Amino acid sequence: MASLLQKVQTLISANLHAMVDSALKANSMAVFDQYVREVEDNLENLEDAIATVGGELKTLRRKKGEQEQQAAELDRNIDVFLREGKEDLALAAQSRLNSVKRLLENYADMVDRQESEYKNLHDARLKLEAKLTTVKQEREELQALLDLARSKEVTVRAVESLDDLMGSGDHDIARVAESIRARLDKASARSEMLAGSLDAQMDEVLERSTLEAQLAERKSKLGLD
After folding, report:
1. Within 13 Å of residue 16, how many CA atoms lie on the same side as its CB?
2. In angstroms, what CA-CA distances link 114 with 64, 65, 101, 117, 137?
3. pLDDT interval class at 31 (50, 70, 90)
């Protein structure tokens, strides 16, 4: 399970801002899509690991309980044998009780380790689910920004073409080009305003997701998940 938890920890600690920068530079959502696929695969593996460790933990608890019952019975038998003067039987029962107690200590240690691993897996799942939610929200915002960027590129190419027309020497064409350029400038300004708004929303989503992840971890510690 250690390697699985290491992979999950790497995904949880992924730098979203770096992912956004990489996606913007490449003008592609591939980096986000790859991350989402990896998270979903590891969440599935986590679910399987949690079920496996949970089953083993139940088995250990049951065996520990059985040994506790056996130890209590042997303890009672020793007293009975001593009262009846059966020293040999009391000695044999005491020897058996000592063995059972050593086994109980081993079971107690295994239960503690298994409970710790079970909790770690649960915590990792909660954190990874929170990170996945954040990334999906980031992806939607980033897609909108990329769409705006592509629109802006089209606008820039159109403006360059208009500049050529305005320098053609034909006054009528120049006036039409100027009118079109004014409309493009207005559309460009609107795109920039929307982009600024989306940047603010992205920061808000990141902050909210961080807070939600912190609350999820706190709920898990309190046993409220």
Report:
1. 21
2. 13, 16, 20, 5, 35
3. confident
What average pLDDT is seen over the chain?
78
Taking the C-alpha atoms of residue 73 and residue 76, their distance in angstroms, rounded to an integer, is 5
Q: What angle do CA 27, 33, 38 make, to 5 degrees?
A: 145
Dist. CA 112–CA 146, nearest whole Å: 50
Q: CB neighbours (10 Å) of residue 13?
A: 9
CATH dotted code for 2-221: 1.10.287
Q: Are 216 and 126 in contact (CB under 8 A)?
A: yes
Domain boundaries, the chain: 2-221
The tens digit of pLDDT for each residue in 101-114 reads 999 999 999 999 99
- Reading the block at residue 5, the tokens are 């938890």
Say if CB 180 and CB 165 are below 8 A apart: no
Q: CA of 190: how far to CAs of 7, 66, 160, 179, 184, in Å?
A: 42, 73, 19, 17, 10
Residue 124 in contact with residue 9, Cβ under 8 Å?
yes
What is the value of pTM for the model shown?
0.59
Predicted confidence at residue 177, as pLDDT, reads: 47
Rounded CA gap, 130 and 8, in Å? Answer: 12
User: Span 185-201, mean pLDDT?
Assistant: 59
pLDDT given at position 174: 47
Please give the distance of CA 8 from its chain centroid, rounded to a whole number: 7
